[in-house]
Amino acid sequence: MEIIHYLDLLGTVGFAVAGAFQGIRKKVDIIGVYIAGILTAVGGGTMRDVFIFDQTPFWIEQTEYLYVASVAIFLTFFIPYHFARNYHFYRFMDSIGLAVFMILGMTKALHAELPCIVMLISGILPAIGGGILRAISLGDLPPYVLRSGFYAAPALIGGGCFLLLLYLKVPEFHNICVSMCVVLLLRLYGGEKKWKLPTINFKVS
Fold it and tell me: What is the pTM of this model?
C-alpha cells in the first residue's frame, strides 16, 4: 500500500532528525552528524534485513530512503536551533519513527509467515537498533533507547497489540494504524509523565 510506504519514509525522517540532533549535542563535525543520523535512520532496518531475512538491506535498492534521510540530516545540521527550540517536535518525530519501524517490521515478518516471537524481533530491531548503533558511534553508553525511562517498552506493547489484533482477525491496515497509535501515544504520554521501568540496584563486592 502506498500510504504504508510514505509512513515508512516519515519514520526514516523522524529517526534521521533524532540521530543528527544527538550528534550535534555531542559536538561532532558534519561527517559525524551525518553518520549518527544515517545509522539511526537505516541501521536498525539493515540489521533486520541481514540477520532475519538474509537479504540485501532495503536502502540499496530503495535509495529514496537515503535521499530523504540525508536531506533531513543536513537540515538539522544547518538549522539546529529550530529543533532545539522545538524539542516537542523533535520528540514527536522520534516517536513516529519508533511506532512506524516497530509495526512495519512486524508486518514484513508476517508476510514472510514467521513465528510471533520472530515478528516481535523483526519489529524491535529497526525500532531501537539504529539508536543503539548511534549510541555506540557517539560513545553514549549505555544507549539512550535502553536507559530512557519509557522507550523500548511502548514498542513492545504496541507489538503485543499487533499480535492480539492479528489473532482477532482485524484487517491488516486497521491493525497497523491502531498498533502504531498505541506505540506513539504510550511513548509520548510516558515520556511526558517521565514513566520508568524498574531497575535493580546491585553492587558487586
Answer: 0.87
Residue that has been written with the C-alpha cell 545540521 in this structure: 77
Which contacts qualify for 23-32: CB closer than 8 Å, 24 or more apart?
23/134, 23/138, 24/76, 24/77, 24/80, 26/138, 26/139, 26/140, 28/138, 30/77, 32/137, 32/138
- Kindly tell me the burial class for residue 172, based on how many C-beta atoms sit within 10 Å of its own C-beta (0-12, 13-18, 19 or more): middle
Note down pLDDT in tens along the chain; length 205 residues. 678 888 889 889 989 988 998 888 888 999 999 999 999 999 999 999 998 988 899 999 999 999 999 999 999 888 766 665 666 777 888 888 899 999 999 999 999 999 999 999 999 999 999 889 998 988 887 777 776 668 889 999 999 999 999 999 999 999 999 999 999 999 999 888 878 877 777 676 5
Contact (CB, 8 A) for 158 and 128: no
Q: CB-hemisphere CA count at 13 Å for 115?
A: 2
Peptide bond into 57 cis (omega under 30): no
Contact between 48 and 28 under an 8 Å Cβ cutoff? The reply is no
Domain chopping of the chain, boundaries: 2-192
